[in-house]
Design a protein that fits this description.
The chain has about 400 residues and is of the alpha/beta class. It folds into two domains: about 130 residues, Aspartate Aminotransferase, domain 1; about 230 residues, Aspartate Aminotransferase, domain 2. Helices cover about 40% and strands about 15% of the residues. The chain contains 15 helices and 13 strands. The strands form three sheets. Strands 3-9-8-7-6-4-5 form a seven-stranded mixed β-sheet, sandwiched between helices. α4 runs parallel beside α12, α5 runs parallel beside α6 and α5 packs across α10. The longest helix is centred in the last third of the chain and has 21 residues. The termini are far apart.
């Protein structure tokens, strides 16, 4: 058997393109602003994770340019060897201060961050306890760790308790949850999760990729939102959302961070984060502190869109954040909805299994502080027109 046979026989993408319902890998020809150019056509962006609009902020761009001028475009090696630049260590110190933790560790991507943390801390006898809606990188990290995995129903603390009750007392236990769930925009009930985890001797890690910059008075994310920053053991985050670039980090106790630093294979065997990316993330942190009005605008826009979609009759699930799902529940209609939205000038993302459970196909919308009232009104108009054409509302 030829290994490539499955590649040559796979036709799904071609069939979707022929049917006019293929909306993956769309070519964007502009910056990630509230408007983008796709294949020469201007669309209003309703599907970016650039929540605070910082990818085009002058201070962020200037910091990246200065870093290139000083350090060049890359580190050309692992941090273990020649890639441990002072700019990276300075970012780690700033992250630790910002998140009020003893230490932080920077990785080259968010995906690598989860792989590195979990594979370093968990072994064959340890148990990872995951929310069923946790991000794919967490699941893949558990595979790399070769640890035991137990899953509990989404945001169901009683089911978490049931899972923990069934575990031996003499195994290491790490409860891992998204702070804000990336597809449906709901928030993990952290205070209750922490209470139950402590009762059964488990540590708690929060993947707060979509909460940082968005939740909390200071933009420190889900733990700050609930007032439980001191209780969360590890906070993981990425730069590819509010922090306007690419990379990831973990913040927590100094000794734990030091251990991860010396045992995380994705850190040891990958090149260090590029200097302009580290500089951009550092500058974005400064802007989050200096310009809280951006977060205020983001929440004003979020409230308008949540109320607008519900008024039109769309099912937005349990969204509590700038991520607002429009639940369709049918794969073909989801793709056709996406096509109509593009026709009416809006870029939004179709989400189908395995990114969401079968029967819960949706259009994932997400909003930015830099959207204007005119942008938001046009998005609502396009959704109403497309939704009525397809019989969704």
């Amino acid at each position: 058997m030829d290994l490539f046979d499955k590649c040559f026989s796979w036709q799904e993408a071609e069939k979707a393109k022929e049917a006019g319902i293929y909306f993956l890998f769309r070519k964007i020809e502009s910056a990630q602003g509230p408007e983008v150019v796709v294949n020469g056509k201007k669309l209003i962006m309703a599907g970016s994770n650039n929540y605070l609009g910082l990818t085009s902020h002058p201070k962020v761009k200037e910091a990246a340019i200065r870093a290139i001028e000083r350090y060049g475009t890359g580190c050309a090696g692992s941090r273990f060897l020649n890639g441990n630049l002072d700019i990276i260590e300075e970012l780690e110190e700033k992250l630790a201060r910002f998140f009020r933790k003893e230490a932080a560790l920077v990785f080259a991507t968010g995906y690598q961050t989860n792989l590195g943390i979990i594979s370093a801390l968990l072994g064959r006898r340890d148990v990872a306890i995951l929310d069923k809606y946790d991000h794919a990188s967490i699941i893949d990290a558990c595979r790399l760790a070769m640890c035991q995995v137990k899953r509990f129903k989404h945001n169901d603390v009683e089911d978490l308790k049931r899972v923990l009750e069934g575990l031996p007392k003499d195994v290491g236990k790490l409860v891992i949850v998204d702070g804000v769930f990336s597809m449906e925009g709901d928030i993990a009930p952290l205070p209750d999760i922490l209470r139950v985890a402590r009762e059964y001797g488990a540590r708690v890690m929060v993947d707060d990729a979509h909460g940082i910059g968005v939740l909390g008075k200071g933009g420190r994310g889900t733990a700050e939102h609930f007032g439980v920053e001191e209780e969360v053991d590890l906070i993981m985050g990425t730069y590819s959302k509010s922090l306007a670039t690419i990379g990831g980090f973990v913040a927590g106790p100094k000794k734990v961070i030091e251990y991860i630093k010396h045992f995380a294979r994705p850190l040891i065997f990958s090149a260090a984060i590029a200097p302009p990316l580290a500089a951009a993330a550092s500058a974005a942190l400064d802007v989050i502190v200096e310009e809280p009005e951006r977060r205020e605008r983001l929440w004003k826009n979020t409230k308008k869109m949540l109320e607008g979609f519900k008024r039109l009759g769309f099912d937005t699930g349990n969204s509590q954040t700038p991520i607002i799902p429009i639940i369709i529940g049918n794969m073909e209609k989801t793709f056709r909805m996406c096509g109509l939205l593009e026709k009416y000038g809006v870029f939004a993302n179709p989400v189908v299994p395995p990114a969401t459970p079968p029967g819960r196909e949706l259009i994932r919308t997400s909003f930015m502080a830099t959207h204007t009232e005119e942008h938001l009104d046009h998005i609502l108009w396009a959704f109403e027109k497309a939704g009525r054409e397809l019989g969704i509302i």
